[in-house]
Amino acid sequence: MENPEPMMCSVVRVMGPDTLLLRVACPQIMGRVSIYCTLMGCSEFSSECKQAVVDWCELHQDGGRLLFLTADWLRDSHGRLLVDLMDIQSKECLTEHLIEYSYCDENTNHIIDCVRDMMDSQEIAE
Known about the structure:
Layout: E1 8-16, E2 19-26, E3 31-39, E4 42-43, H1 49-60, E5 66-75, E6 81-86, H2 94-100, E7 105-106, H3 110-120
Parallel strand pairs: 3-6
Antiparallel strand pairs: 1-2, 1-5, 2-3, 4-7, 5-6
């Protein structure tokens, strides 16, 4: 079995410290898709966090690309995909940077909370 290549993405827009619009290559359609995402494992963002995200992305994008990391394609209660971004060369992650410099708090229960929200949600049957 062949190991999949790491997914690359580019940041289109930083909507807020917890919402990013990313463009990700989608080989199945031989194109790119845009996805709204939230940073995995982060909460309680400071007022400077949005600018810190923009600055980090501008500094670390290699030709407009970053590595795209996700936890089983889980989504939060707003439908945003849980992601982290990684610099291709230095392997530094955006969430680690934000937590290390106190732009946000670490939320170790973020994935568990998203799974709980998914289990508690009700499907609408037609």
